[in-house]
């Protein structure tokens, strides 16, 4: 049985947000920082597994989608601040 088509819907939301918004905010940070932010964020968000992106279009109301986007934004921003703070404390960056 091949389960490769399954994935957590939040992964795309997190990766897209980091690429669109976070990289410019933390331009002094390297790829490792953003990977850590993605992992930390995904650990804090609920899992929502799907097989096809189009599945979400049929199951989400616009209000639910807006709530998910807001939760992703808040979670990623908090994760980035947390990880950046730890790096600053350690004197690594």
Which key terms come to mind for this protein?
mainly alpha; 93 residues; two-stranded antiparallel sheet
Description:
- It is a single chain.
- This protein is mainly α.
- The protein has one domain.
- 72% of the residues lie in helices and 4% in strands.
- It is built from 4 helices and 2 strands, in the order βααβαα.
- The protein has a two-stranded antiparallel sheet with strand order 1-2.
- α1 (9-25) crosses α2.
- The protein starts with 6 loop residues before the first strand and ends with a helix.
Overview in brief:
With 93 residues, the protein is mainly α.
Count of distinct structural domains: 1
Strand order of the largest sheet: 1-2
Number of strands: 2
The proportion of strand residues reads under 5%
Sequence stretches where pLDDT stays below 50 over 5 or more residues: none
**Rg calculated over all Cα atoms:** 15 Å
**Structural class based on helices, strands and sheet pairing:** mainly alpha
Rounded mean pLDDT is 93
Query: First CA to last CA: what distance?
Result: 45 Å
The biggest beta sheet reads:
2 strands, antiparallel
**What is the helix tally?**
4
Shape: elongated
Topology as H/E string? EHHEHH
Helix content: over 70%
